[in-house]
Each structure stands twice: as structure tokens, then as C-alpha cells.
Specification:
The chain has helices spanning 3-23, 27-45, 52-87, 93-116, 125-142. It has 146 residues and is mainly α.
Length: 146
């Protein structure tokens, strides 16, 4: 097996572990993590221009956007990594796309099932569909298959 194959397989596994760790956080902990990130962003953007109360309102307003953006980004990265892994193997382009889609979809399904067992989290079909198509769409439209 090529060194690049091993590298990208390792990156794929690390990505999966990262998703698992985030999904393993109870709802309150997950919300606190994203709120902390949102708070830092708001403090950087609106340093001295808003009062603390106005900053808190901004945080409440944009926190759901930051959470969705983080989710989107993490599955986009996964799709790219999975796709790059497959480029290290002698596989036809159409099969690479299908395999990337299958791996992304299966992982999205297992991630949502995992969340079902975490306090305050849920298993949502719409998240499975969104995550499944993000992974292959980003790879297919941003990286040329070799």
C-alpha cells in the first residue's frame, strides 16, 4: 500500500473519531462549546461597538448559524478526505464518487444513531440526508478525480 494511501486512510479515521467525539457530547455541553466559539467571534467583530447585553443578543441570534456552519464544514472536510483517499487507489472515477457517497452516507447514519443515545441529542433523518450529500458534493465539485 502506498504511503499516501496510508496517510489519507489515517486522516479519514481521525476525522471519524473527531465527529464521534463531537457527537458524544451531551446537548448542553455541545451548545456551550458552540456558544463559546460564537462569543469569541462576536467579541472580535464587535469589540467596543456593542454593550454586553447587545453582544448576548447577537450571540443568541448567530449561534445556530455557527453550529450549522461547523457541521457543514466538518462534513465537507470529511468528503474531501474520503475522496482523496480513494484517489490513491486504482478505481474508476464513477466508482470513486459512489464510494465517497456511500462512506459519507453510512457515516452520517451511524453518527445520527449514535446521537440518539446521547442525553439531549436526537437522531434526525434530515441531518443524515444533509450530511450525506455535503460530503460527496463538496468533493465532487472542488477536487478533480485523478
Amino acid at each position: 500500500m502506498k504511503k499516501t494511501s496510508i496517510l489519507f486512510i489515517t486522516l479519514t479515521i481521525v476525522w471519524m473519531i473527531l465527529i464521534f467525539c463531537f457527537s458524544n457530547q451531551p446537548s448542553d455541553e455541545s451548545k456551550n462549546t458552540s456558544s463559546d466559539v460564537t462569543r469569541k467571534i462576536v467579541n472580535i467583530i464587535y469589540q467596543d461597538t456593542l454593550s454586553e447585553q447587545e453582544k448576548e443578543l447577537k450571540i443568541e441570534k448567530i449561534d445556530p448559524i455557527i453550529r450549522k456552519l461547523a457541521h457543514y464544514t466538518i462534513y465537507t472536510i470529511g468528503g474531501i478526505i474520503i475522496g482523496l483517499t480513494l484517489t490513491t487507489f486504482e478505481i474508476q472515477t464513477k466508482k470513486k464518487i459512489l464510494i465517497t457517497q456511500a462512506i459519507g452516507s453510512i457515516y452520517a447514519i451511524t453518527d445520527e444513531i449514535h446521537q440518539y443515545f446521547i442525553p439531549g441529542r436526537s437522531c434526525q433523518i434530515k441531518d443524515i440526508l444533509i450530511d450525506s450529500f455535503r460530503s460527496v458534493y463538496r468533493y465532487n465539485n472542488n477536487i478533480a478525480f485523478t
